[in-house]
Amino acid sequence: MIHWLKSGWGHRVWSVDEALFALGRVGGFELGRRYVWRGVRDANWHSRTSLTRHIAGLKHAPPSEDELRRLEGALVSRARSWGIGAHRGGLDSDQAVLASLQHHGAPTRLLDVTTNPLRALWFACKTTAAGEPQQSGAVLAFDVTAAQVLRTADHGAPSAWGSLANPQAWHYSQALETSATKRQAFLVEPTFPDDRMRAQEATFLASAVPDSPTVTGVDDIYIGVGQAPPGDKKLTRALSLGDRDRGRPLKLPFLAILIPPRIKQKTRQTLESGYLINESRLFPDLAGFATALQEGRVKLAPESDANVREGERESGP
Fold first, then answer.
1. b/e per residue 291-313 (b: at least 16 CB within 10 A)
2. Please, what's the b/e burial string for 32-53 (b: 16 or more CB within 10 A of its CB; e: otherwise)?
3. In what side-by-side order are the strands of the sheet with 186-189?
4. Where are the beta strands (DSSP E) in 144-282?
5. Which of 53, 119, 161, 278 lies at a 20 to 30 A Cα distance from 199?
6. Which helix (H) or strand (E) element contains residue 11?
7. What is the C-alpha radius of gyration for the chain, rounded to an integer number of angstroms?
8. Which of 129, 116, 187, 139 is closest to 40 using CA atoms?
9. Residues 11-54: tens digit of each pLDDT
10. pLDDT digit string (tens) for 68-115?
């Protein structure tokens, strides 16, 4: 269980207005700073990439960087042998293959994030299944102002002769080496996003495996902290409704905004009615429709209504 408030990196909101205000305040702390956002429906969850969770489930321990690289290489190789990443123009980069795999549910080291905090808030307000205890959600904010940006279609020429044997892997490998050296994360941005990526304003956060978590609860992503946690009191002053304190803006390399269960439904209703953020817009593809249909969120017309419409078609205008 993660205690974001005790760690000094968490701030709890108590109303829809406070939630929306806090998200806007983070993005407006300092001109030129850039954040990406991730919404999780259970604030108790550790923030882990799907590949880390996969390996930890197999061996009951966090993976090392070497283990992650070996499994990641095998994953890309198997995906390419399946035909993924091949097209008339040649072969996609490793980061493009990994982004596609992550997008479709395969375990990778890429962490799904969005550039739009309201979309992250929608995901954070998802409720648990009926009969299960409702938990606080969380919107996680990552400062990526200094992060390297790796495009999925990066056609820059590799600078090392050794890379010619596998040019599709060079840029991604270099980004991981830079991440380990500088102890910072990097972004993998889709050059040609599909409909779902565009709708979710999606991008991916990635990192070499940290020697130890730089923020408790974020297990496998470097966060450039370089400071003590701001603490609940300072965050409350900075993020609550009202005028901001004078002086230099608060430095926030990371933040977890906690959404209590009692405001989840109202927050989602506000986002869906006032901002047109809903499931059909965020998952505007066949897979999204099929999932919603299978899980009962798309209601089919009663048989009698369907028969009436069929009769109308047969009788003509």
1. eeeeeeeeeeeeeeeeeeeeeee
2. ebebbbbbbbbbeebbbbbbbb
3. 10-12, 254-259, 137-143, 35-40, 111-114, 202-206, 186-189, 148-151
4. 148-151, 186-189, 202-206, 254-259
5. 53
6. strand 10-12
7. 22
8. 139
9. 999 999 999 999 999 987 778 889 999 999 999 888 888 888 88
10. 899 999 999 999 999 998 876 678 899 999 998 998 889 999 999 999
Range 278-286 average pLDDT = 94
Q: What is the pLDDT of residue 19?
A: 96
> By the 8 A CB rule, do 220 and 48 touch?
yes
Query: In the prediction, which pLDDT does 21 show?
Result: 94
Q: Do residues 31 and 42 lie in contact, with contact meaning Cβ atoms separated by under 8 Å?
A: no
Cα–Cα distance between 247 and 245 in angstroms, integer?
7
For the chain, the residue count is 317
Alpha helices in 31-166 (DSSP H): 50-59, 65-81, 94-103, 117-124
Amino acid at 238: A
Backbone angles phi, psi at 244, to 5 degrees: -75, 145
The residue written with tokens 């003590």 in the block is: 228
CB environment 62-95: b (16+ within 10 A), e (fewer): bbebebbbebbeebbeebbeeebbeeeeeebbbb
Higher pLDDT, 314 or 23: 23
Least confident of 53-57, 189-193, 198-202, 309-313: 309-313
Closest Cα to residue 214, out of 206, 197, 202, 226? 226
Q: Which amino acid is at 71?
A: L
Instruction: End-to-end CA distance of the chain: give it in Å, rounded.
Output: 62
